[in-house]
Amino acid sequence: MRATGTRAAAGLIGAAVLLLTACGGGSDSQDGPVELRFSWWGNEQRAQATERAIAAFEAAHPGITVTGEYADFNAYFDRIATSVAANDAPDVITMGGAYPREYGDRGALLDLAEVSQYLDLGKLDEAATSNGRFDGVQYGVPTGVNSYGVVVNPAVFEAAGVSLPDDTTWTWADFERIAAQISAAAPEGTYGAEDPTSADALDLYSRQSNEGLYTPDGKLAISAATVTTWWEMTSRMRNAGATPPATLTVELGGQPAPEQTLMGRGLSGMRLDWSNRLAAMRTASGAPLVMMRAPSESAGRQPGMWLQASQLYTISSRTEHPEEAAQLVDFLVNDPAAGREILTDRGIPANPEVRDAISGAFNENQKVEAEFIDRISEQVGPPLVVGPVGSTDTRSILERIGSDVLFDRATPADAAARFVDEVTAAIS
Amino acid sequence: MTEPDRSAPPGGALSLASPPTAPAPAAEAPPAARRRRGRRSQRAVRDGRVAYLFLAPWIVGMVVVTIWPIAASLYLSFTDYSLLRAPRWVGLDNFAEMLGDERLVSALGVTFTYVVVSVPLQLALALALAMLLDRGVRGLPFYRSVYYLPSLLAGSVSIAILWRQMFGTDGLFNDFLALFGVQGIGWVSHPDFALGTLVVLNVWTFGAPMVIFLAGLRQIPVMYYEAATVDGAGRWARFRHITIPLLTPIIFFNLVLQTIGAFQTFTQAFVVSGGTGGPSDATLFYTLYLYERGFGSFDMGYASALAWLLLVIVAALTGLNFLLAKRWVFYGD
Fold first, then answer.
1. A179 is in which domain, residue-wise?
2. Are A390 and B169 an interchain contact pair (Cβ–Cβ within 8 Å)?
3. What pLDDT sits at residue B117?
4. Structural domain count, chain A
5. Could you tell me if A167 and A274 lie in one domain?
6. In a domain, A378, yes or no
7. CB contact (8 A) between residue A390 and residue B297
8. CA A26 to CA A241: how far, in whole Å?
9. Do A400 and B278 touch (CB under 8 A)?
10. Which is nearest to B269 in space by CA: B172, B186, B159?
11. Which of B188, B273, B295 sits opposite A81 (nearest CB)?
12. B43 touches chain A (CB under 8 A)
């Protein structure tokens, strides 16, 4: 017994010593290199460019190392939700749309005013910067500026013997007609257009009739009648073969990367998408894709298109290194060295100085995108109303009810009523 | 602890390492051991402590990763908890919300359909193959391993991705149909067929119950069959009146296990539907809906309530299974 007691004491002391050393080790590392985690969504191409930008940052800031984490768009926000809930959020988190409000209002994001001495927002485009500001609190920093429009493949038009539309005058009826013409003349497996239904498309379409998805005070703005007209159009297009059959559309919905879209594979004539994805789709398809204004921009009550922050860099409120995280974000948006790597992949840089510094490095793909943004910047409608808390559910609600329309399980009118009900419930 | 252990030589609990020398009960222990009874009880206490010390990793694991989360989820099921803010007590609101939740109804529908269709199919296939292998196939260990392999793999993400490709528009399955001039569709993307592909995936994992059936078949004495054959029983009669009755405990075991497993299906449905339960909620498994509410809509309180409802459903069905078992399971006594 005696011997055991002594041994136990020795063991306890040993354990205590180990613990103490461990604590010592912990406090030492405060002075060592700071490790940051930075997350984004996107494809391999974006990851490579971002890793190069990170390397440039690390070279400029010895003592800070950055680990990149990325996933494709569909999986990304699931992952962020779980890691934030587990108190294991990355230090710098890429977000978009209403997500900063969703997380910021719940206390997960840092108010960037707290780190303003490390992060200069003064040179960034004000409209884009305002997309990261919610009720006066700046949670996000715009990565760049983009716009939702129509990506067009002239090669598919030419092969089908259809002439390109004039995007200053065309309407949704033209869009529908042209898509059907292309599908009819194109080889099997090539479609005039991809199914255009998305939350952004509905936003754009309803803004043309002065609605939009949400009101500034966080209510639903779009009417069931507008959603009905939209789904009547997409159903006609699907029935006419202008867009792919329902199963293919659903399948494509699960593959968001630009190179997996029909447009990225050279198999469709038109696709509604974001301008910052144009370069990736041009690279993937090898075709001289161009960007056009959405249909009916001049025919509606107001233009539906808008310029916005394509993505927003945010900082976790639980980061142990807010200053270093702010330095990283500052580098990404304000330093031409980062701009030269990322180019227009996250939108046209919101800092004009960066944009001018890197425009010489633009290749054909980025030039086309930059020219498009330049061209439309005078013609877009009012700034977008970003959705309230709960509005990040809209995408999945639309996908679910939209597939009922695709498979004729619900009439456009019934589906529209359900959509309005469910989104209203989600945001209230 | 059993008697022989207590009379084991000094070294106490560690005697597990050395085989017990004398399996004699305490009554037959040598007198010397009996004289040390007082000290022995002291040692028994110490042995108990040592036992708990060895059990500690398991107990800590059990409390930290099982009991604590279960208790926490019970508490959370009575709260409004958005993951990022502190939970707020709402009483029975979450359970009241379930009553009017249409998606919960469709999730229950999908899950029950899946269980009712895939479990019997899987068990039937498992039993059929077990009987085939039991007839003395050459290279039995090889076949047994090959058929068991899917059970090890099927829960994995890679198999689910493979499945999605196989039953996609340009998938292997449609290539196969094309041989017969049939033009297939994207099976996993069609609301009428998506669940079917997952049923096929589950049936494909017949290996685990098959191995258990095989062991059960080996337990049936050959003389029963011989006697029945002498009495003129045909192949069907022998199956119906010997194999099935003697196998009922095994069938019951597999049924309970596979039913519970099927209720908990998540990975396959999550991957095949891209995390949405789509198209049109056709693959919205209960667990997937629970996940979506918890991590998609940040309704962790409601998701916890859903988890408890699932527990009650599975427990009730398992209880029912045991109750019914009295009528058909034959334990040979």
1. 147-307+390-427
2. no
3. 95
4. 2
5. yes
6. no
7. yes
8. 64
9. yes
10. B159
11. B295
12. no
Judged by CB atoms closer than 8 Å, whether chains meet at A74 and B275 is answered as yes
Length of chain A: 428
Tell me the chain A residues in contact with residue B274 when contact means C-beta distances shorter than 8 Å: 74, 253-254
Chosen for mutation from A109, A251, A255, A392 (greatest number of chain B CBs closer than 10 Å) is: A251
Classify B186 in phi/psi space as left (phi over 0), alpha (psi -120 to 50) or beta.
Answer: beta
How high is the mean pLDDT in each 10-residue block of chain A (428 residues)? Answer: 47 44 40 88 91 95 94 87 88 92 89 94 89 92 93 95 93 96 93 95 94 93 96 96 93 87 95 93 94 91 90 94 95 93 90 90 89 89 88 91 94 96 92
Copy the structure tokens of residue B175. 């290539």
* A248/B189 CB distance under 8 A: yes
- What are the tens digits of pLDDT across the range A334-378? 999 999 999 888 989 999 899 999 988 888 988 999 999 989 988
- Would you call B295 an interface residue with chain A, using a CB distance cutoff of 8 Å? yes
Q: How far apart are the first and last CA of chain B?
A: 30
Q: Judge whether A304 and A192 are in contact, CB under 8 Å.
A: no
Are residues A262 and A410 located together in one domain of the fold? yes
Q: What is the CATH number of the domain that holds A225?
A: 3.40.190.10
ipTM rounded to 2 decimals:
0.76
Q: Residue A162: what pLDDT?
A: 94
Report the distance separating Cα A225 and Cα B165, nearest Å.
Answer: 38
Which CATH number is correct for B97-328, 2.120.10.80, 1.10.3720.10, 3.40.50.300, 3.30.70.360?
1.10.3720.10
Q: Is residue A161, in this structure, part of any structural domain at all?
A: yes
- Whether A293 and A225 map to the same domain: the answer is yes
DSSP state of A39: E
Query: Which residue does chain A place closest to B278, by CA atoms?
Result: A400
Domain boundaries, chain B: 3-76, 97-328
Residue ranges, chain B, pLDDT below 70:
1-40, 333
- List beta partners, residue A145: A309, A348
Q: Do A108 and B84 touch (CB under 8 A)?
A: yes
